[in-house]
Amino acid sequence: MPVTSDTGLDQFRKSIDNLDAALIHLLAERFRLTKQVGQHKAERGLPASDPEREQRQVARLRAMALAAELDPEFAERFIRFVIEEVIRHHERLKQAAAE
Amino acid sequence: MPVTSDTGLDQFRKSIDNLDAALIHLLAERFRLTKQVGQHKAERGLPASDPEREQRQVARLRAMALAAELDPEFAERFIRFVIEEVIRHHERLKQAAAE
Predict the structure, then answer these.
(1) Which member of B23, B30, B60 has the closest CB to residue A26?
(2) What distance in Å separates residue A99's CA from the closest CA in chain B?
């Protein structure tokens, strides 16, 4: 194996790359599901966003982050970032269904 | 099992909640690793950010997103969102090491 200038950093980066691949694939699957939710909502004329559900999601993930020693503020910003994207998709579907 | 008003939506939401739990735990693990990277960099006086590495990460994850039918623009915004947080952490560590 060739000796790199900073093998320690390289090893960390390989693990980070593996985690990122997992994150991207889980996000892909999450959007597959929310796409179905969007169609389901559009067909029934349900609103694109559901603030009560969002509050429960945020509270649950903040608690989960704390237990896993992840900054709960970051966890909240992350889930809000994802939910905003989902709502944008739902609104587009709703508009398409209404046309 | 009680019949809810919208069982289809409930089933989707349970799957989404499971994926979110997985996402939060992977992010927790990712920050455990980047914390070690930050210490490693601070000890060696290496810069907190590495734009070339970031470019490679963005390109790799965009390609991965495309293959998994996730919007590559979203994938890029996601990884930049995570990297920004990591750099903030690294800068704090660097400052602490310099004090």
Answers:
(1) B23
(2) 24
Chain A hits for B85, CB-CB cut-off 8 Å, are 74
B23 with A30: Cβ contact below 8 A: yes
SS3 (DSSP) at A14:
helix
**Tens digit of pLDDT for each residue in B43-85?**
999 998 899 999 999 999 999 999 999 999 999 999 999 999 9
Distance from CA of B60 to the nearest CA of A (A): 9
ipTM: 0.90
| pTM of the predicted protein model | 0.90
Instruction: Determine, for residues B64 and A21 on separate chains, whether the beta-carbon distance falls below 8 Å.
Output: yes
Go through the domains of chain A in sequence order and give each one's CATH number.
8-98 (1.20.59.10)
Is residue A48 classed as helix, strand or coil in its secondary structure?
coil
